[in-house]
Specification:
mainly alpha, TIM Barrel, Cyclin A, domain 1, 2 domains, Carboxylase_cons_dom, Pyruvate carboxyltransferase domain-containing protein, pyruvate carboxylase activity
Length: about 240
């Protein structure tokens, strides 16, 4: 798998440009992969970037199956997965409507309906998806007391780049650490932590390092420059120390 971060459509984004991903794919191909998974763990793959990335890989590797995984944190997941499909992806991840959106995957029903009567027709009907979705609507109601409380999409994921699988966990952990009401500060600190760590690929276990450092920054009321200036004397979380 190639883990996606940054924005290949932004020429100012830094090292994670289109050539980075093409080189990574070439290396994987040399290792003998049979399928390429593009793991967009934070839902950062915008429609324009999706078109650029998948098209470039498809042009260079016409026979390599491409499978795209994403999260719908910002609410652009359906548009991005449609862009991937049109650009040549063979499979994209989605979730049943009742379980989709937010930090989950984009809606399967929306993708099925959007590709009907086109060359990308999935072979499923919206009626079939809706019948199965009724079951998951009932299930979700049973587990509602355990949900994170997240009410809507959050486009600021393009700023802090927090993985979807970490977002709700870190939200809960922050409240347990006494940071209730400071979630916005934690998200901002996550972006700071990412810069301090060197703009890393944030996926387990590196995402935990960024999350631990973000909470540490907020809990100690530190600025980015103060972390740098006081690095020798600060008692950083164990995960951060082990990372370095």
């Amino acid at each position: 798998a190639v883990c996606y971060t940054g924005d290949v459509a932004d020429p100012n984004r830094g090292m994670y440009d289109l050539e980075y991903y093409l080189n990574f794919t070439r290396e994987l191909k040399e290792q003998g992969i049979h399928v390429l998974a593009i793991k967009d763990m934070a839902g950062l793959l915008k429609p324009e970037a999706a078109t650029m990335l998948v098209s470039a890989i498809r042009d260079e590797h016409p026979d390599l199956p491409i499978h795209v995984h994403t999260h719908d944190t910002a609410g652009t997941g359906v548009a991005s997965m449609l862009a991937c499909a049109k650009a040549g992806a063979d499979a994209v991840d989605a979730a049943m409507d009742a379980m989709s959106g937010l930090t989950s995957q984009p809606s399967l029903g929306a993708l099925v309906a959007s590709t009907a009567n086109s060359d990308l027709n999935t072979g499923m009907t919206l009626q079939e998806v809706s019948q199965v979705n009724e079951y998951w609507e009932e299930c979700r109601g049973l587990y509602a007391p355990f949900e994170s409380g997240q009410k809507s999409g959050s486009a600021d994921v393009y700023i802090h780049e927090m993985p979807g699988g970490q977002y709700t966990n870190l939200l809960y952990q922050s409240s347990q650490l006494g940071l209730t009401g400071q979630w916005a500060h934690v998200k901002n600190a996550y972006a700071v932590a990412n810069r301090l760590l060197g703009d890393i690929i944030k996926v387990t276990p590196s995402s935990k390092v960024a999350g631990d450092l973000a909470q540490f920054i907020v809990a100690n009321n530190l600025t980015e420059q103060e972390v740098i200036d006081q690095a020798e004397s600060l008692s950083f979380p164990k995960s951060v120390i082990e990372y370095f």
